[in-house]
Amino acid sequence: MAHEVLLLNSDFEPLNVCNMRRAMALILLGKADVVHEHEQPVRTSRGPIPAPSIVKMRYHVRRPLPQLRLSRHSVLARDHYTCQYCGMKGRDLTIDHVVPRWMGGPHTWDNLVACCRKCNLKKGDKTPQQAKMKLARAPRRPHFIPYISLPAYLKARGQEDWQLYLPVFEAFANEHVA
User: Which domains does the chain have, with CATH numbers?
Assistant: First the structure.
C-alpha cells in the first residue's frame, strides 16, 4: 500500500493527494467511489482487490478558496527544484533573497528564489549584480491557486492517469518535477 491516490470532490475537482490506506478507508466506508484503478492490485487475506489510483467523493466537500502560501517548498516547486543562478537541479537547495533583507529586500514571492548552497555562499549578502551573478528568470508570484499544494500538484502532473482531472496552469503545462 505504498502508492498515492488522487482524491476528487463530487464535481471532479482535485481535493488532495492521499495514501492508499486513506483511500481504501473512504471506499470501504462508502464515502468514495473508485474512478480509475492502479495496475497492481492490493493483496488482502481474501485475495487481491483492485487498487485505486483516483477516488471521487460521493458527497460534495465544501472548502474555502485556498490561499497559495509562501513557503520554502512552494518556492522550490515554483522554481522546479533548480538553482536560479547556476541551473543545478536537486532537492538540496536553499532559499535566497534576491535583494538581501538587510538592504530592505522583502520576504515575498518576487524576492525569493531557489538557490544551491554553493551559489548562496558565493552571493552572500549582496545583490546578484554586486556578486556578478545572473538570475535564470525573474521571480514572481504564481498566477494560480491549486486546491492541492504546489509541490503535490507538480508531482501529480507526472502521473499520466491523473492529468485529465488536474487543472492546467500555463507556467507548468509542459514541465514535470524530476
Answer: 4-65+147-170 (no CATH), 72-123 (1.10.30.50)
